[in-house]
Design brief:
Number of strands: 0
Distance between the termini: 70 Å
Structural class: mainly alpha
Shape: elongated
């Protein structure tokens, strides 16, 4: 039997007005049971979970929305959702940064796809800083490789990549990156 979406939405709204967010989510789940890809309803569920301070569930819900937008090639909408997720993690659950560590690189990729290179580079830099602080030098190398590919005429990413190579004792690769940076500086 089909769910009367309007009736369920009205019932959920009454519960929201009473600040009974868990019960409102249960109502919206009835709609999602019929159409799990209903992005608008998923967004409402994410918002309610955020209001209820169920941060992990809110992040998971928003991530489903973001992935849906990516599949639809709706990059600006996906960008907004991933930015919101990053802010929730930073503000409410910084201790779960490792669990949701895949959010920042995804955000940087979306920025790059949209041509927002400054934002992409800043986001990759944020990621590299977090990884370096955690002692994950091999992962830092991967990040700086991406940065040097995004901004090939800038010597700074090459220098930072060289530094990362030196930290893992890959001297040959470090020398290669230093040479690339020197060539760029000479130009």
């Amino acid at each position: 039997m089909a769910v009367d979406r309007e009736k369920v939405a009205q019932a959920a709204q009454k519960l929201v007005e009473k600040k009974r967010y868990d019960k409102a989510v249960e109502e919206y789940q009835k709609i999602l049971a019929e159409d799990p890809r209903d992005v608008r309803t998923l967004l409402r569920v994410g918002d309610l979970r955020l209001k209820a301070e169920q941060y992990t569930d809110a992040i998971t819900t928003y991530e489903t929305v973001g992935q849906s937008y990516l599949q639809q090639k709706a990059l600006p909408k996906a960008l907004a959702v991933y930015k919101q997720i990053r802010e929730i993690v930073k503000k409410h659950v910084p201790h779960l940064e490792d669990r949701f560590g895949h959010i920042v690189p995804k955000l940087a990729e979306i920025y790059a796809q949209l041509g927002y290179m400054g934002d992409a580079l800043a986001t990759y830099d944020e990621l590299a800083g977090r990884l370096a602080a955690a002692g994950r030098d091999r992962d830092v190398i991967d990040v700086f490789r991406k940065v040097s590919e995004l901004d090939p005429s800038n010597p700074i990413p090459h220098l930072r990549l060289a530094d990362a190579y030196m930290r893992v004792r890959d001297i040959d690769s470090a020398i290669e990156r230093l040479g690339a940076a020197a060539e760029l500086l000479l130009k």
